[in-house]
Amino acid sequence: MHKPLLYQKISLIFLCLHLSFCVSASKKGLNPRLSQLPGYLGEFSVQDQKTHLVLIGLQNSSENMVPVIWDTGSDLSFLEGEGSPAPMAFGGKRFAMPFRKGILPDDFPGLLGNDFFLKTCVYWEDSSLLVFDSSSRFCAEPEAYIGIDFKRLLVQSQGGHFYASLESETQESCKGLVDTGASLSLLPETFFSSWDSLGKKQVFLPGKKVVQAEERKAKSRLLIPIKDSSPLQYLEVRYLTGISIEEIDFPREKGNNQVCVLGLDVLRQRPLFWDFTRRQIRIQESNKNGK
After folding, report:
1. pLDDT value of position 254
2. In 10 A of CB 284, how many CB atoms?
3. CB–CB of 15/8 below 8 Å?
4. Can you give the pLDDT at residue 160?
5. Cα–Cα distance, 277 to 95 (Å, whole number)
6. For a FRET experiment, which of 44, 80, 151, 187 has its CA 20 to 30 Å from that of 233?
7. If 0-12 CB within 10 Å is exposed, 13-18 middle and 19+ buried, where does residue 145 land?
8. What pLDDT sits at residue 2?
9. Are 272 and 224 in contact (CB under 8 A)?
10. Distance (Å, whole) CA 194 – CA 145
11. In angstroms, rounded to a whole number, what is the distance separating the alpha carbons of residues 12 and 76?
């Protein structure tokens, strides 16, 4: 049995452990009346593999399901391999999905990025990802239909990606790429004042380059500022550090252009609403354990 290895796709900001797909998870249904709302497009079954999320819902020309990674750190959807774009379908709509070779680890057949979700909003909770057309009333007022007290993150959008403000209790800050394709968050070495080291990890970069990164567990809280309320708080965040992170200029905040990654270890903890048209991300105030 091969040893799990971390893989960092810098060009598309994708992070996962090198594991095979498993497509036989149970499916938890959400409120069935949501599928009756105008603008409802369809539902993906979400299989949480701990290091990555697998979406089941795309069909190929033979009407077979094609599992793909959900990666909001990528602005491009594609299938691994070579050839002409493959005909696919979701929610009654048909489209062509391009191939790209040599980007994903072995056993990963494809990736679903932000281009797929243009002009939509999505609601993710546990094993269900509901997709709505941006014109749907659900996208404008999700709380009215699912009874969740969502909190709106302070988000900026640039280059097809979404960035949330992240802070530590010692007032360190960075712009976090909101990335469902990253198994762990990626933060500067000095972001937390105290932490436990979980050891060095092998991280794969494009071109089959392998580097070392340190995995840590924070002893203080990660703070995510939200609109008109106190920040969301996350305890014992596991993260990677020691990898160079790109810098992006944000027009309204020239003094703070350090970019980090907000990964799946944090994002999976609470139900999430994402409006790709209105450029909004909302997260439930309490986590799944009510904290």
Report:
1. 52
2. 18
3. yes
4. 85
5. 20
6. 44
7. middle
8. 37
9. no
10. 41
11. 8
Question: What whole-number distance in Å separates Cα of residue 106 and Cα of residue 143?
Answer: 40
Closest CA to 201 of 223, 221, 186: 186
Q: Which two tokens stand for residue 1?
A: 């049995």
Q: Is residue 27 a contact partner of residue 45, using CB atoms and an 8 Å limit? A: yes
Coil vs helix vs strand at 11 = coil
Q: Are strands 78-80 and 99-100 parallel, antiparallel or unpaired?
A: parallel
The whole-number mean pLDDT for each consecutive block of 10 residues of the chain, a chain of 291 residues, reads 40 39 44 87 94 93 93 91 94 91 80 94 96 96 90 91 94 92 89 94 64 91 92 95 66 64 94 96 75 51
Selection from 42, 41, 46, 43 nearest residue 27 by Cα: 46
| Residue 63 CB-density burial (10 A; 0-12 exposed, 13-18 middle, 19+ buried) | exposed
DSSP secondary structure code for residue 23 in this structure: -
Per-residue model confidence (pLDDT) at position 86: 95
Distance CA(156)–CA(104), nearest Å, equals: 27
Instruction: Please report the pLDDT score of residue 6 as a whole number.
Output: 42
Q: What one-character DSSP code corresponds to residue 71?
A: -
What is the identity of the amino acid at 172? E
Whose CA is closest to 16, among 179, 161, 160, 129?
A: 179
Distance between CA atoms of residues 74 and 72, nearest Å: 5
Judge contact between 288 and 155, C-beta under 8 A.
no
CA distances from 198 to 14, 183, 216 (A): 21, 15, 5
